[in-house]
Automatic annotation (TrEMBL):
Signal sequence residues: 1-23
Alphabetical list of PROSITE patterns matching this protein: PRO_ENDOPEP_SER
This protein's UniProt keywords: Acetylation, Hydrolase, Protease, Serine protease, Signal
Keyword Acetylation applies: yes
Protein's organism: Spirosoma arboris
InterPro entries, per the entry: 6-blade_b-propeller_TolB-like (IPR011042), AB_hydrolase_fold (IPR029058), Pept_S9_AS (IPR002471), Peptidase_S9_cat (IPR001375), WD40 (IPR011659)
Protein name: Acyl-peptide hydrolase
Pfam family name, one: Peptidase_S9
Claim: Transmembrane helix is one of the keywords in the record: no
Taxonomic placement: Bacteria, Pseudomonadati, Bacteroidota, Cytophagia, Cytophagales
Length: 711
């Protein structure tokens, strides 16, 4: 009887745990049904804001206005057709909303070319559209990109074919070329009174900042040199421009393997004469190099005749302020954290940004909160502390409200407002979260910290449902980029929000999922972001991924024989490297559009020197060998674990041939392999149903390969 009683109790406990686990199971379609907001912006006057919403692939513009900020849908695109909305802006008078529809603006190349996820015989166009804020039919202004509305709210300047074009804001007449400047033109900036236009003219080995005044006035080139000038910003009175200068191309071939400072400096120019002078030069250190986080230099001419910018010189991407005549810079943000998504208030008195800092710094390093600081005083204030996440803040034109995007570990990102001074936040558009979205069933990821073999501290997020068997299968998730950071909640990138949803889905299936923030990523300082021997020149970051697998294998609830790994882009590269080097540790993997042969990218990320050139790169041979050894193809002979390889064949970030080549190699070796080609979609799964296809294929593969205990 005791034996029978024990058996019944054990069976009951098993059924209870199984029922509890199954109760948390939901479909990928359900957890991917959330609306995702981006492109949040505000008008220079009044209290008007706008953003784009992607609702299961249907992308539309929404607007709201204070004091109530009731969301209102402004466009009515009804298809999941892969046409993204970017460059969203509101005219200064609040009358017009302008945006670009089409293209792939997160790509490494061909971002301005159409994306045809529907495989339509007639390709879509990349077009600039204008629509009244009050409502009405959107009007196609022209084919083009990067529109900027004049401060007078009457004209839109934009880029088409590398040249600057112009159109009435209401589209009442056809767009036309504004001027022609030899080279590829970009970074257009209207003067404060709308009478002139600054721009960058890239001529390959050098680049100028130019100022256009009229069709009959020659372009003014600001202190032309053999350098590359960038990031122009007007002074409030429109008489001067601040810009960044970096060295031009050329020089004798140098070592690939030696890390070196990448110099940059800040200059101010008189617009009337074109003369310029240097007001600041970056420290000649590795950390003082050109910043590589969101927005780059983040250069602005602020109020009180201050120039503000971002620099990594003290080991963190921090904000600085300097007088327009030069002098000692003022460090505005002092804590050990990063600043990103930086915006200047319309009155130019405040910088707002999202940072991984707050009241609970131990956990907040893996979150984002909205922070503000005056442009002339180190008086930083975290405005949204707590367990949530907030990012991409903007101030309304009347200075009364801060708009942002916020989320939690469970609630997906939504636009949010709060008073600029003090007051409660208001989350907008919560009614757009579908009833089928499993918000209450999502787990709160736990912060995990462990050490790599060389002592590097590595952060991760652990997703795990309660209950289930005593020994569970586990999965490592490796993000792409690599300058990215996964967080303790929904991510601010649509690509990584997709990954967060997939991790939640895998956890609901019964997997223990560990998302790894490996070195080369952001959020943990310069030495973590720019480590020695990283990427194609040593793959030192793989130590962190392997250490994550070892850490998982040591957890009491994990079956060490059933650990899988998956990731996309750079995460696909590290997934392939893991399977090639450590098939005994990683039992199966899903490699999504990964890099497999760095030499296809050029040695050290560049191009091979001409065979006819007498001067040679001094360490070309050892560097070439290291590039090969850092590529998964160099270790294919040890690859035994089964793999699913997924790639979209219009990928503009990682070439499709990277996977074609790997498939041939694995097939020749007899590695168990499945493949999924998604036709005519890009790196970013522009079509919602394609993101679902990728995610469901990943989940199904791991269920088949890892869910059943090995005999």
């Amino acid at each position: 009887m005791k034996t029978l009683t024990f058996f019944c109790l054990t069976l009951g406990l098993f059924l209870t745990q199984t029922t509890r686990l199954q109760a948390q199971t939901f479909s990928l379609e359900a957890v991917k049904s959330y609306p995702f907001p981006n492109e949040l912006t505000s008008s220079a006057k009044g209290s008007r804001i706008a953003w784009a919403f992607a609702e299961q692939g249907k992308r539309n513009v929404y607007v709201a206005e204070g004091p109530d900020f009731t969301p209102r849908k402004l466009t009515n695109y009804t298809d999941d057709d892969g046409q993204e909305l970017t460059s969203l802006s509101i005219s200064d008078d609040g009358k017009w909303v302008v945006y670009v529809r089409g293209g792939d603006h997160g790509s490494n190349w061909d971002d301005e070319l159409p994306v045809n996820t529907m495989s339509s015989p007639v390709s879509p166009k990349v077009q600039i559209w204008s629509v009244p804020f009050a409502g009405g039919e959107p009007k196609a202004i022209a084919e083009g990109d990067a529109p900027v509305i004049s401060p007078k709210s009457d004209r839109i300047a934009f880029i088409k074919g590398g040249q600057v074009w112009i159109s009435p804001a209401d589209g009442s007449s056809a767009a036309k070329a504004l001027f022609n400047a030899r080279g590829t033109n970009s970074s257009i900036q209207w003067s404060p009174d709308g009478s002139q236009l600054a721009f960058v003219c890239d001529r390959k080995d050098h680049a100028f900042v130019g100022v256009f005044t009229s069709e009959t006035t020659p372009i003014t080139w600001l202190a032309p040199s053999f350098s590359k000038d960038d990031s122009p910003s007007w002074s409030p009175d429109g008489k001067k421009i601040v810009f960044v200068r970096t060295p031009g191309s050329g020089g004798a071939p140098d070592s690939i393997l030696v890390r070196r400072h990448r110099p940059w400096s800040i200059w101010t120019a008189d617009v009337a004469s074109g003369t310029a002078s240097q007001i600041w030069q970056a420290p000649k250190t590795l950390a003082g190099s050109i910043p590589t986080t969101h927005g780059g230099f983040n250069l602005h001419w602020a109020a009180n005749d201050r120039i503000v910018y971002l620099s990594y010189e003290d080991g963190w991407p921090h904000l600085y302020s300097i007088a327009s005549l030069g002098g000692a810079p003022l460090l505005l943000t002092t804590a050990p954290f990063m600043a990103e998504h930086i915006t200047l208030s319309h009155d130019r008195k405040w910088l707002l940004f999202s940072g991984n800092v707050g009241l609970d710094n131990k956990l907040d390093i893996d979150r984002r909160h909205v922070v503000r600081v005056p442009v002339d005083k180190a008086a930083m204030e975290v405005l949204t502390p707590g367990a949530g996440l907030e990012w991409m803040p903007v101030v309304t034109g009347d200075g009364a409200t801060i708009a942002m995007i916020s989320a939690t570990a469970q609630r997906p990102p939504l636009p949010t407002v709060r008073p600029f001074t003090t007051g409660a936040t208001k989350v907008l558009a919560q009614n757009l979260i579908p009833a089928s979205f499993p918000q209450s069933q999502l787990v709160t990821p736990k912060q995990v910290i462990f050490k790599a073999p060389d002592g590097m501290t590595v952060h991760g997020q652990l997703f795990e449902q309660t209950g289930g068997p005593a020994k569970k299968p586990a999965i490592i998730y490796v993000h792409g980029g690599p300058p990215r950071q996964m967080l303790l909640g929904w991510n601010y990138s649509d690509y990584y929000a997709n990954s967060y949803a997939l991790n939640q889905y895998l956890a609901s299936l019964g997997f223990v999922v560990l998302s790894v923030n490996y070195r080369l990523g952001i959020g943990y300082g310069y030495d973590f972001h720019q480590p020695a021997n990283g990427g194609a020149l040593g793959a030192s970051e793989y130590q962190d991924v392997r250490a994550a697998g070892v850490w998982l294998a040591e957890q009491s609830q994990v079956d060490p024989s059933r650990i899988g790994i998956y990731g996309g882009s750079y995460g696909g590269y590290l997934t392939a490297l893991a399977l090639a080097r450590d098939s005994k540790l990683f039992a199966a993997g899903v490699d999504i559009h990964g890099v497999h042969d760095w030499s296809q990218q050029g040695v050290g990320g560049g191009t091979a020197p001409s065979a006819m050139r007498f001067e040679k790169i001094p360490d070309l041979e050892p560097a070439s060998k290291l590039v090969y050894q850092s590529s998964p193809i160099s270790s294919v002979s040890g690859w035994t674990s089964p793999v699913l390889i997924i790639h979209g064949d219009d990928d503009r970030n990682v070439r499709f041939t990277q996977s074609t080549d790997l498939v041939r190699r694995l097939d020749k070796q007899g590695v168990p392999m499945e493949t999924l080609v998604i036709v005519d979609d890009t790196h970013h799964w522009m079509k919602h149903t394609n993101a679902l296809k990728m995610g469901n294929a990943t989940g199904d593969y791991f269920k088949r390969k890892l869910m059943k205990p090995r005999q």
